[in-house]
């Protein structure tokens, strides 16, 4: 039996046995795939797995994570979620911040294929809580990161200046980010970036987000995929993830109990000196 | 249990035709999600698209019909409102059908535009139906038809990425069609040369190989200069000219006098830059030309458009992938509103009202004797209303009080009407003048199709139920037509309307909802088996004899030039964060935060001379009117030129603009008029 049959069957079992009240997954209709909340087992034949969409995103203008909204709207429901590696990491980070109650989510963890992992440049293409599918190795080393690191600092600055000059201020990178959950977003504030201008202030418009997300980015790459002008945002976040790992021995999305370093460092672990001159 | 779904639909803002999902939870809109498998948007959106859900549920939405009594609006039932309208329109129709004029809407669906033009012609008995395409691309429809035989974008958006050279003239693509600019940038990253011809420094100029800053209104001279250089260097495509075109000798004669030296005098573009840019365009294997309102909104709009067609034909850049002449249409469905015949001289598919056979075909399909007399265009309607010849108007989804030139005159015209109906989703500046206001639904509450700038017909899907008592425009038109006694409006769904459109419109012959559900179709799509036409004029041009036609065109000055009293050239346009008359974007928090009000861009030297500092208020005056507006001192505009975005009612650029018209296309000259500027103290 194919992977998708297994996922559909398990989802059906969970719904039939009332273990969950609904299954949040991807639905295919007329050749288009989009997130959907399945409550009727009859519809499960349209349930698909794809690396096209993440099931963990902030809805705007509500400015709430989709699962958080669902759990709030239906306070007694338990929801099964078809989850891949990146989505599980996102859920863990959201739970840390009190955004979702993991006790009310039943994870149907699925492994991604090698092709999907390569397309997403994903280092860990499976959830810790793997229910269906075979783990494949993640991508190790990143060509784009290596290419950038082989350049001199002035070259790198010129590279990013060119990339940020293309920005059309759509806020898409923030809008799709599963970790961008602030109600009061600093990117919108004139304190950091003068409003109404194109391109938006270089580099502060982007840097304020990089800073905010640096220890919670789970590397899903949605920001890069949402960028209308192809700014290589995943590359910059891979560099940030590496810095966070090197400096704090911390990886986002691994463990709900592990506190985020940018919150704890000030009172507990002292920041090491190198922090001050990290270049991206 | 909770319901949550994502409904795929087409963006209601510009003509790029992006698709996205509307997120719906328990019947309420909770957000927008890009669609990754969509051809143009590819999972990306601009800031307006991302925020396209917010205005839908704005507290300002109209939810009940309104009837004006004693100067104030009172809520009314649908029956009462439609009955009032039916009676009044019948009175005027029975005296003289041509005393009534209709504005259709580039914001509404194809089906609704088709019904509105049918309503005007069948129920009211007049051809006076037009819409805001008159104000943006009327010159495109005329100019490209006389050159190529078809007045639409020749190629498709995605092809831009594979061009070797892209020439952008009069289009601030990044701000007006952001997702089309995406493909221009991708082309430059593939090594394509980018030539931007624009008086202002726009975001694209940063990435351009050549930025030629012409004086506003000198585009014909620029084009003729390009062609003069190409011909003197022998870079023309001789085989293409011989096999595919006619009128070459006439063109050659006309451009002979436009030497780089003379063109420099007229346009201000240094001769060396002109020569280099012309050689770059002519030397490219595949060159795409993009233009927009920067060249169409002139008294020489048709000349400008046909000049761009001349240049493309001269170099053989038509009828192939990644080439062509590509007018970018400003509204989500302005292409469709034109295609549907919401124009005074044609029915759907540009079939001429003047052609007896065509009239007979539509007349027999609609069981009526159709009016022959050509109708009035937008600006003519306002003039005739002012004179008292137009007595009643029906306006659907348009806001001429902000969008039309010389708005003081528009107000006079509308106030002079005996009866005005406005059908809209908000109580716009225009709706406030109406006798009856009908609450329509937004794109999110109805089904239908939009046709994007690249002739791509795409589905609009209903995500939520209509707000309050509002109704979809197509339902309102059907109900009113029935109340006025017509039997030709008994449709049960938009799909049924599309079937009728397909049966009467050759270019839409193969368009049917079942095919559109899995993706759009590029017209011409003449049959159910036809897969659509991404680029036009492949083997022959659409003109009757199959040839493209060169037109020898002389440069003419704009209608109003700066003088001692009005020393500045005023030009107008749009910006990234707002759309047209601001009806939708100014009800969106994020967009208002970015740009809360209008401004006039002034060059630093001019500002210094006037003692005007950034952020201070200026009084801008023209022969039509005056506005107070904040100054933005910036090098984006050259000396002597000022720029005002036209979105903002409180400092409306169109109080100032010149209603002088292109003689053929009747498009007003929004892009050039003479103005004076002084500093004011605002208390």
Q: What does this entry look like structurally?
A:
The complex is a heterodimer of chains A (280) and B (683). Chain A is α/β, with parallel strands linked by helices and 280 residues long. Chain A has eleven helices and eight strands. In chain A, strands 1, 2, 3, 6, 7 and 8 form a six-stranded mixed beta sheet that branches. In chain A, strands 4-5 form a two-stranded antiparallel ribbon. Chain B has four domains: 4-57, ADC-like domains (N-terminal domain of TfIIb, Single Sheet), CATH 2.20.25.90; 66-135 and 332-522, Rossmann fold; 138-327, Dimethylsulfoxide Reductase, domain 2, CATH 3.40.228; 568-680, Barwin-like endoglucanases, CATH 2.40.40.20. Chain B has 24 helices and 30 strands. In chain B, the strands form eight sheets. In chain B, strands 5-4-18-17-16-6-7 form a seven-stranded mixed beta sheet, with helices on both faces. In chain B, β19 and β20 (456-460) form a beta hairpin. At the A-B interface, β2, α2 and α7 of A face β1, β2, β3, α1 and α7 of B.
Key traits:
heterodimer; A: 280 residues; 2 domains; globular; B: 683 residues; alpha/beta; N-terminal domain of TfIIb; Rossmann fold; 4 domains; 7-stranded mixed β-sheet; 6-stranded mixed β-sheet; 24 helices; 31% helix
Provide a short characterization of the protein structure.
The complex is a heterodimer of chains A (280) and B (683). Chain A has helices at residues 3-16, 66-73, 85-96, 114-120, 143-149, 153-165, 172-176, 204-213, 222-226, 233-248, 261-264, and strands at 22-29, 32-38, 47-48, 58-59, 64-65, 79-83, 105-110, 130-132.
């Amino acid at each position: 039996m194919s992977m998708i049959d297994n996922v559909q069957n398990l989802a059906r079992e969970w719904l039939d046995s009332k273990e969950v009240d609904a299954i949040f997954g991807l639905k295919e209709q007329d050749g288009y795939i989009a997130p959907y909340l399945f409550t009727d087992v009859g519809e499960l034949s349209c349930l698909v797995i794809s690396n096209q969409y993440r099931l963990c995103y902030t809805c705007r203008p509500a400015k709430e994570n989709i699962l958080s909204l669902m759990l709030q709207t239906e306070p007694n429901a338990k929801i099964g979620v078809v989850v891949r590696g990146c989505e599980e990491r996102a859920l863990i980070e959201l739970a840390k911040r009190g955004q979702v109650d993991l006790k009310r989510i039943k994870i149907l963890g699925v492994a991604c294929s090698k092709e999907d992992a390569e397309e997403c440049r994903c280092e860990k293409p499976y959830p810790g809580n793997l229910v269906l599918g075979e783990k494949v190795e993640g991508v190790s080393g990143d060509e784009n990161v290596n290419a950038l690191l082989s350049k001199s600092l002035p070259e790198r600055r010129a590279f990013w200046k060119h990339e940020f000059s293309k920005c059309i201020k759509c806020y898409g990178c923030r809008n799709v980010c599963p970790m961008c959950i602030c109600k009061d977003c600093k990117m919108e504030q004139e304190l950091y970036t003068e409003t109404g201008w194109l391109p938006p202030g270089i580099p502060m418009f982007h840097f304020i987000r990089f800073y905010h997300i640096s220890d919670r980015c789970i590397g899903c790459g949605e920001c890069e995929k949402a960028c209308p002008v192809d700014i290589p945002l995943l590359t910059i976040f891979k560099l940030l993830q590496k810095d966070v790992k090197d400096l704090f021995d911390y990886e986002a999305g691994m463990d709900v109990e592990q506190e985020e370093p940018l919150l704890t460092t000030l009172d507990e672990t002292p920041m090491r000196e190198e922090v001050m001159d990290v270049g991206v | 249990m909770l319901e949550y779904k994502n409904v795929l639909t087409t963006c209601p803002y510009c003509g790029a035709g992006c698709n996205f999902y509307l997120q719906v939870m328990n019947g309420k809109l909770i957000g927008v999600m890009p669609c990754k498998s969509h051809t143009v948007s590819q999972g990306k959106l601009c800031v307006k698209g991302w925020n396209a859900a917010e205005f839908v549920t704005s507290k300002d939405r109209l939810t009940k019909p309104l009837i004006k009594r004693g100067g104030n609006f009172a809520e009314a039932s649908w029956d009462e409102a439609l009955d009032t309208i039916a009676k009044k329109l019948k009175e005027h129709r029975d005296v003289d059908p041509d005393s009534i004029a209709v504005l259709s809407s580039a914001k509404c669906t194809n089906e609704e535009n088709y019904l509105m033009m049918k309503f005007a012609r069948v129920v009211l008995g007049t051809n006076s139906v037009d819409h805001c395409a008159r104000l943006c691309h009327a010159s495109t429809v005329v100019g490209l038809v006389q050159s190529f035989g078809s007045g639409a974008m020749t190629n498709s958006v995605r092809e831009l990425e594979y061009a070797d050279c892209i020439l952008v003239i009069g289009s601030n693509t990044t701000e007006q069609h952001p997702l089309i600019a995406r493909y221009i940038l991708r082309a430059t990253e593939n090594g394509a040369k980018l030539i931007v011809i624009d008086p202002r420094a726009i975001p694209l100029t940063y990435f351009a190989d050549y930025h030629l800053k012409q004086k506003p209104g000198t585009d014909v001279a620029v084009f003729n200069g390009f062609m003069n250089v190409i011909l003197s260097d022998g870079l023309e495509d001789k085989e293409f000219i011989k096999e595919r075109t006619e009128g070459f000798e006439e063109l050659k004669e006309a451009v002979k006098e436009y030497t780089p030296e003379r063109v420099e005098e007229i346009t201000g573009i240094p001769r060396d830059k002109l020569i280099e840019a012309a050689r770059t365009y002519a030397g490219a294997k595949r060159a795409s030309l993009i233009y927009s309102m920067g060249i169409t909104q002139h008294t020489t709009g048709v000349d400008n458009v046909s000049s761009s067609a001349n240049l493309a034909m001269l170099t053989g850049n038509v009828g192939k992938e990644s080439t062509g002449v590509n007018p970018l249409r400003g509204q989500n469905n302005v292409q469709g509103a034109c295609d549907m015949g919401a124009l005074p001289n044609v029915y759907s598919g540009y079939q001429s009202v003047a052609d007896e056979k065509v009239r007979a075909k539509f007349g027999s399909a609609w069981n009526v004797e159709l009016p022959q007399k050509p109708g009035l265009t937008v600006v003519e309607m306002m003039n005739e209303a002012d004179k008292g010849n137009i007595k009643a108007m029906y306006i659907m989804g348009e806001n001429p009080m902000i969008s039309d030139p010389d708005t003081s005159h528009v107000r006079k015209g509308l106030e002079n009407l005996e009866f005005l109906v406005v059908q809209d989703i908000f109580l716009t500046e225009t709706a406030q003048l109406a006798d009856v206001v009908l609450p329509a639904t937004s794109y999110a509450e109805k089904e239908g199709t939009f046709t994007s700038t690249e002739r791509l017909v795409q589905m609009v899907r209903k995500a939520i139920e209509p707000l309050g008592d509002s109704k979809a425009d197509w339902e309102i038109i059907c109900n009113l037509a029935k109340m006025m006694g017509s039997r030709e409006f008994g449709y049960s769904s938009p799909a049924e309307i599309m079937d009728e459109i397909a049966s009467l419109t050759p270019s839409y012959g193969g368009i049917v909802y079942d095919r559109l559900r899995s993706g759009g179709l590029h017209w011409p799509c003449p049959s159910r088996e036809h897969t659509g036409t991404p680029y036009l004029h492949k083997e022959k041009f659409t003109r009757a004899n199959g040839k493209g036609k060169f037109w020898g065109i002389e440069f003419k000055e704009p209608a109003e030039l700066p003088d001692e009293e009005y020393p500045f050239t005023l030009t107008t346009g749009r910006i990234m964060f707002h759309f047209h008359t601001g009806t939708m974007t100014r009800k969106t928090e994020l967009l208002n935060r970015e740009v809360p009000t209008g401004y006039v861009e002034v060059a630093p030297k001019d500002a210094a001379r006037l003692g005007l500092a950034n952020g201070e208020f200026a009084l801008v005056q023209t022969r039509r009117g005056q506005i107070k507006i904040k100054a933005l001192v910036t090098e984006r505009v050259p000396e002597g030129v000022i720029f005002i975005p036209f979105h903002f009612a409180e400092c409306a650029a169109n109080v100032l603009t010149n209603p002088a018209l292109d003689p053929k296309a009747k498009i007003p000259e929004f892009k050039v008029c003479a103005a004076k500027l002084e500093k004011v103290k605002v208390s």
